[in-house]
Amino acid sequence: MNIVALVKYSRDVTEIKVDPATSELRTAGVPERVGLIDKNVVEAAVRLKEATGAGLKVIALAPATARDSFKDVLAMGVDEVVLIEDPFDGEAEAGIVVRLLEAAIRKLDPVDVVLCGFASDDGYSFQVGPRLAERLRRPLLAYARGITPEGGGLRVEQNLDDRMQTVTAPLPALVSIDEEAFPPRRTTLMDALKAKKKPVNVWGIETELGLSRADLESSARIADTRLTGVVVRRQQRVLKGQDLGAMADELIDALEQAGVLKGAA
Amino acid sequence: MGDKPTILIWSEHPALARELVGAARQALGPGGDVALLAPTGVAVDIRSVDVVFTTESADESPEAWAALLAAAVSQTEPALVLVGATKLGLQVAPRLAERIGAGYAAWATGFTLEAGTGAVAARCSLYSGGALAYHQFKPGRVVLTAAPGALTAPADAPSPERIARQSTLTAEVDGIAPTVIGVRPKATSAARLEEAHAVIDIGQGVKAEEDLALIESVAALLDGQLACTRPLSSDRDWFPEWLGLSGKKVAPELSLLIGVSGAIQHIVGVRDSRVIAAVNNDENAAIFAQADVGVVADLYAFLPVLVERIKARGMRPAWQ
């Protein structure tokens, strides 16, 4: 059995700041890394590998300079990373990213299970799993909190809006991991040393995937995107000290001034 | 449909479907058509809809809804398809976009549809609510998802009552959907958080379920409803629902956040509150930048004192 885990090389959104005067987003210098959600995807994939003895590769779209960022996922138990060198510098719309991932999965075929996050840390648009399922024509077991190999297929516990649901599907299949499911394992120094010997193979979209940049660009449906930051306009008054009674009174005064509390008539 | 643009709507939640209809009607003006794929088993009482599709299928899988919507798209040729951003809707909408070759964006908070050209532009929440993206789509069909309350159209926009054309849709799902072998409904909350004047919102700083008694004593004095961050619901199972980007959004007079760190994914759920107050023992917690007034203190020491002072001063909520 062969497993592929899709990992997003994501912006750390907690480091994105907004200029309060202009609402301009300050994205320069914001660190990029393997997403937190994607670490959980790798954990789910490694557990499935351990349960089945399958091979496990990671596919990621990233700049070639990011190769060292995948040491952690290799240490967790991934056999190999396929790094698709991103010609769009992280700016491609999801429809194009899905085409790149599809081409890489097809090149690695036979792939029995593809795992991805329910969303990415930065884009958070929930679209890669469902779109890949459409393009690959494979069943999608979405929002998985539990994955069990069963009868040559998979049984998955799904966390849906109003219910938990158990589903099964034959292979090949796609699984998306639910939020906060499969917290990643800690790795040891030994794991890290073993990971040093594992390959990170860089694939070009034209050389290895046989795609044309012009074709990909023409498949874009969004002509232009402009970003602005959301500016927080709060008073940000902070009360601290040792006298809890005085702080409680100050809080009550502040809430009274704001028209939330009123005194005895 | 010629020059008269159509917007097609679907959500499995009738209230959200109604919201989307309101927003679509407002964007179209009197000139265009609103088509609705009605949720299963729900009587269509929605005014200002021109075309209603119903289905007799009992299959409520994302694959089935995507197939039905694709059938509705080929009948109505809409410029825009609006889908409710629930966990189900967020599976259905990107599938549909891929299937019909449409543009797609999630978490819309506003959109425009140009009458002559049918060109769509959308404002969408990005970076978990920290930013807004303004997308101008290329000519052609567009699919958008919107969360409850995200598109701020009047709930009952004045509009002449229309007599909708009704038809029944069927669509084939071609054998790639998973098989459902078990369903366990989640508990639903009786609390109507959206209607609360005050929300007492607790996070992981509250350590044990027994401590809820302390929180409830504060809530009682402030006429507040209890709410929580996602881990307290999904990991600890203290509450059936949570506030945040992936949960509910509230806009009360007061949100008092207790032991909440201030992650943006959570703050999105309370940031429209009129006043935000916070108690956290970590002076560097992100929450203090998101609050009007913050108290740096151990909640277990501070809250009993706060309760005592509110009582001693005879304070009560302004709305009581």
- CATH H-level superfamily of the largest domain in chain A: HUPs
Low-confidence stretches of chain A: none
Please state the overall shape of chain A, judged from the principal axes of the Cα atoms.
globular
Low-confidence segments of chain B, given as residue ranges, are none
Number of domains of chain B: 2
Q: What would you note in describing this structure?
A:
The complex is a heterodimer of chains A (265) and B (320). Chain A contains seven helices and 15 strands. In chain A, the strands form two sheets. In chain A, strands 1, 4, 5, 6, 7, 8, 9, 10, 11 and 12 form a ten-stranded mixed sheet that branches. Chain A folds into two domains: 2-218, Rossmann fold (3-Layer(aba) Sandwich), CATH 3.40.50; 234-265. Chain A is 28% helix and 32% strand. Chain A is of the alpha/beta class. Chain B is an alpha/beta fold. Chain B folds into two domains: 6-169, Rossmann fold, CATH 3.40.50.620; 193-312, TPP-binding domain (Rossmann fold). Chain B has helices at 14-28, 62-76, 89-100, 212-222, 230-234, 264-267, 299-312, and strands at 6-10, 33-37, 51-55, 80-84, 103-105, 108-113, 120-126, 131-137, 142-146, 165-169, 179-185, 198-202, 224-228, 254-258, 275-280, 293-296, 316-317. In chain B, helix 1 (14-28) links the parallel strand 1 (6-10) and strand 2 (33-37). The longest helix of chain B has 15 residues, at 14-28. Chain B is elongated and about 65 Å long. Chain B starts with 5 loop residues before the first strand and ends with a strand. Chains A and B meet through helix 3, helix 4, strand 8, strand 9 and strand 10 of A and helix 3, strand 5, strand 8, strand 11 and helix 5 of B.
